[in-house]
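Task: encode each sequence below as structure tokens.

Item 1
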Amino acid sequence: MVDYWNLPAELPLDPPTVRCTLADGPTVQAMNQAEAETIWTELTEAPEYRKAAAGLGPDEAIVDVGAHIGLAALSFARQSAGSRVLAFEPAPKTYGCLAANLAEHVPGGTAFNLALGAEPGTAALVFHPYIPSASSLFEDAEDNERNLAANLDNVDADDLTRKVVRQMFDVRQDVEVEVSTLSQVIREQGVERIGLLKVDVERGELDVLKGLDDAHWPMVRRVLLEVHDIEGRLAETVALLDRHGLRSEVSQYGVFAGGSVHLVLATRD
């Protein structure tokens, strides 16, 4: 296990995974225990996540795009037992944790080592091995700094914590990953209804939605997105959802106050 409070001046590029038990939750394989605990707290505290999965039926799929190590998928599956879970994560090592966690806790779920976007192909993923939830196909240093500063300020982080987090965040790798589209997945996997489409892909959310053909939008009942509001993307996302018959509620979890990250929960009337 990495001692995060006594880090060497130069961090190794391949930190070991850890097994950790989350508060009132499952024991999971994680890349970073502190990150996993933080994400689990958000999932259990933010009401949007409970509302998103409420009342889903066994004939409705849960599609998790940007699944990370699978914590949202696990949370949704606990709330909606019987729903088919399809979870997508492009970073190979993070995907390994996702696959292990689904196999242990959601045996009917399927993990895919894929990114989803507007067009199929390949793309360069900027992978942060110590903070893998920040990995992105759309790296933006200015947006990263804004959100990192906001998060640290909102939790009143001390100087040592700020130093450690920034040192970990600065470690990155460029990884070529495979990209598919939502509609391609729907066709290949025989998906007929999507009760919940959850998207958390660090500035790639619009590309994911653009990969859904017009013919497939009516099968989507709810969408939960983490949207980075840069260059008018929040308004553009809400407008796109509205055009396809989904009404949006926009909120911002407290730790993101002052940053660009917003939650959008969109529901079909």
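Item 2
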Amino acid sequence: MSGVDLSGRVAIVTGAGKGLGRAYALGLAARGAAVVVNNRRHAGESTEETSAWSTAEAIKAAGGRAVANFGSVEAEDSGLVMVRDALDTFGRLDIVVANAAAPQAAGFNKTDLATFRHVFNVGFLGTLNLLHAAWPLFREVGYGRIVTTTSSAGRFGQHGLSAYGASKAAVESLTRTLAAEGARNGILANAVSPYALSQMTEGYMRSDVAERFTPDKVVPLVAWLSSQDCTINGEVIVAGGGRFRRAGPVETPSREGDEGSFAALMSDLATTPGRSFSSSNQAFDTLLVEAGLEPRAPLD
């Protein structure tokens, strides 16, 4: 068991009925957190048939504290309802883990706008609804831990995942922005980019990969990012099979160019090592220096 202690903390986990979300909810509860377990109720399901109820009951059976929330994250008030459930049931809120997402696997020419809207409504706006509801509370108490879920499809693009990838790119950008805005109020926001067996990936993973890349291998990272021990902010961490790596945007040093030199210039830039920046302001100020101009603020 990890050394992370979440005793006395309260978390919301969306998409927590199955797969990664369920593993996160169980993992946070095992480390002492009370958990609001969110997963939407499907048509015709009784309370006892819902995956959210199943996860919440599993937590209670193990001696933990949990309450099920059956709302769809697509609903505009879904975040407010989950925050209210946390406060009414447990008296506080410290952690939000935005995990809910909608699958998509079709070429851009075969993906209609309704599918795009659905994927964005769940993956991005569902995340936004929760974070926007929790944000004022975190600011008021001067503490909060935000863990969002992104994907390599959002950073690199992936054939057949135009809607899903774009929604994850939006989540990643929102996470970095909230990290910048929340730091002064004790709010840390980071994103997890998981590689793990789930309903979305089971059709793509070889059996040997699936055996090693189980959801429980991602849980220790999510637990640490959710804790007061967390020391990073605004980062994207790739997790899979018990291995972890940092991911993020990079920019190469700039070069002068014109229409006649772009082919050679782009070839050169493709092999030039890039660097990351702490903010968009730092990225622009670095370009000013490379152009022989004074930066707007001193560079680190």
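Check on item 2: The two ends are 39 Å apart (CA to CA). Residues 250-300 form one domain.
End of task.
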